[in-house]
Amino acid sequence: MPFVNIRIVREVIAADPEGIKSKVSTAVTSAIADAAEIPEDNVWVVFEEVSETDWFAGGTRVKELRSGS
């Protein structure tokens, strides 16, 4: 049973968190089920929301990267 853990910047999905998570989980579930030739019910998806101030890329906060600073 595939278990997919998706970490996403909370502020990126702030406008519609439930809708965006639903779209992403549907697409990911479908892709894995198709590729592995398993029922979609066997694919589990979990989201972890991380604040843009707690996520870094190359030593720079994602908040700063997103603002262009």
TrEMBL record:
Highest taxon of source: Bacteria
Record keywords: Isomerase
GO molecular function, one term: isomerase activity
4-oxalocrotonate tautomerase-like domain sequence ranges: 2-63
SUPFAM superfamilies per UniProt: Tautomerase/MIF
UniProt-listed Pfam families: Tautomerase (PF01361)
Name of the protein this chain belongs to: Tautomerase family protein
